[in-house]
Amino acid sequence: MDEMKQVYKQPTSQEVIRQADHLALYDRYGSMAYGLILQIIPEPDLAQAVLVDLFTSPQLKSYAETPSQVAGEIIRLARNKALIAKPIHTTPSLSIPVSTTNDNTAKLVFDLSFCQGYTPEAIAEKLQLSRTNVLKSIYTYFKQLRSS
């Protein structure tokens, strides 16, 4: 019986506060993070596992302390965790025709960079664009998102 008492440990007050902070962050940003993770990993079971990993991460404690930057930090952390957890077989090849319109190119470049994790240099090489044009395409896509 004493062995069972040793196995179960009462959480400390700091652990309880940290869990409450994580739940509050999940309530506020969980759907945003899950949508982002699903864009990178289109498999719901794996995406949910990444979401759980995200909101149980010890890094979230520092985000709760700086509320002005929480959304951006959660997006950054969700993206990183999703890219790490993404199965290799879902990574598309970059042999994509460049004969698309400028709007489609901007969206494609953004998707390859943000959702697929390719560097601007790799995108420029495969799409036969300059690195500057890749960065301009990302900027253009951000401007389109903001105006929508």
Automatic annotation (TrEMBL):
InterPro entries: RNA_pol_sigma_r3/r4-like. SUPFAM superfamilies: Sigma3 and sigma4 domains of RNA polymerase sigma factors (SSF88659). This is Sigma-70 family RNA polymerase sigma factor. It comes from Spirosoma flavum.
